[in-house]
Design goal:
Arc Repressor Mutant, subunit A, 273 residues, single chain, alpha+beta, Trna Endonuclease, Chain: A, domain 1, three-stranded antiparallel sheet
Length: 273
């Protein structure tokens, strides 16, 4: 991107616009609703007191950013057109990619293509988990000390004489309150992976745990939290882990989106009477 083009975009983009571009880049895909929750929160004192007004405001900004070429909408929508514009999916556009890289002094350009449905569904589910945590932190329920997405949360290690292995969590989350910190590797499961694939991923975590690297770096090994669609799926994974002699069950926590704060938010302190 030329210096002149970058300067023109800088003049046309507000600070909030740039933060929205950075989030779309960071998450890779976001829906209109997710961007609204991040940047146009509904609050009793306004400026947006209802979800519908916040969504309209978000949509106006996103349409303007699309006209500038800094973001682009995917042709495929989650759930179909009947759900309306709130579930339009966005990714960074070519101009947005060049603009953000120019701001950081990075010459290499990233290539953006229309993703497949499975990939898109998974990335948006991961984003939903992260957005929910950000909302909870913004509401003052806990501090969000770390929220690393792929690939920042990946870990490469060597176990025995084998070639290097890369562990690929969906998220690394660290929350805190005045008394405690809670560290978690997060796997967002949509119920589409066969159990053998889930167990292979768990064994990779177990092998990484065995190296002691994470414990050396941060003083503990994060809990591995699987967020699954429903209690039936949770029981299947829990039972499979318990039956696998290569796995330590206490390393893994299985929960649903409705109950995830029990594992990801700071654990309640021990009380004495």
């Amino acid at each position: 991107m030329s210096a002149h083009r970058a300067e023109r975009l800088e003049e046309q983009l507000s600070d909030r616009d740039i933060r929205m571009l950075e989030d779309v880049e960071r998450f890779r895909l976001l829906t209109t609703r997710q961007l609204q929750r991040l940047h146009f929160p509904v609050t009793p004192l306004g400026p947006h007191v209802t979800a519908s007004s916040a969504t309209r405001g978000t949509t106006r900004v996103l349409n303007r950013l699309e006209e500038l070429g800094v973001i682009t909408r995917l042709q495929r929508r989650i759930g179909g057109i009947k759900h309306g514009s709130a579930l339009t999916v966005w990714q960074l556009g070519a101009a947005g990619d060049r603009f953000l890289r120019a701001r950081r002094g990075e010459p290499k350009r990233r290539r953006y293509e229309e993703p497949g449905r499975t990939f898109m569904s998974h990335m948006l589910a991961v984003a939903d988990t992260a957005v929910a945590l950000i909302e909870q932190a913004n509401a003052g329920r806990f501090e969000l000390l770390e929220l690393d997405l792929e690939p920042a949360c990946w870990r490469t290690f060597v176990s025995g004489s084998a070639a290097p292995i890369t562990l690929k969590p969906d998220l690394l989350v660290v929350t805190s309150d005045p008394e405690t910190e809670t560290h978690s590797f997060v796997e967002v499961d949509l119920g589409t992976e066969h159990l053998p694939a889930v167990l292979r991923k768990c064994r990779t975590y177990q092998r990484y745990h065995g190296t002691g690297t994470e414990q050396h770096d941060r003083g503990l090994f994060p809990a591995v939290v699987w967020i699954v669609p429903d209690p039936i799926r949770a029981k299947k994974i829990r039972d499979a882990i318990a039956s696998d002699r290569h796995l330590t069950s206490d390393l893994f926590w299985i929960t649903t989106p409705e109950s995830m704060n029990r594992q990801l938010a700071p654990y309640p302190g021990t009380t004495t009477t």
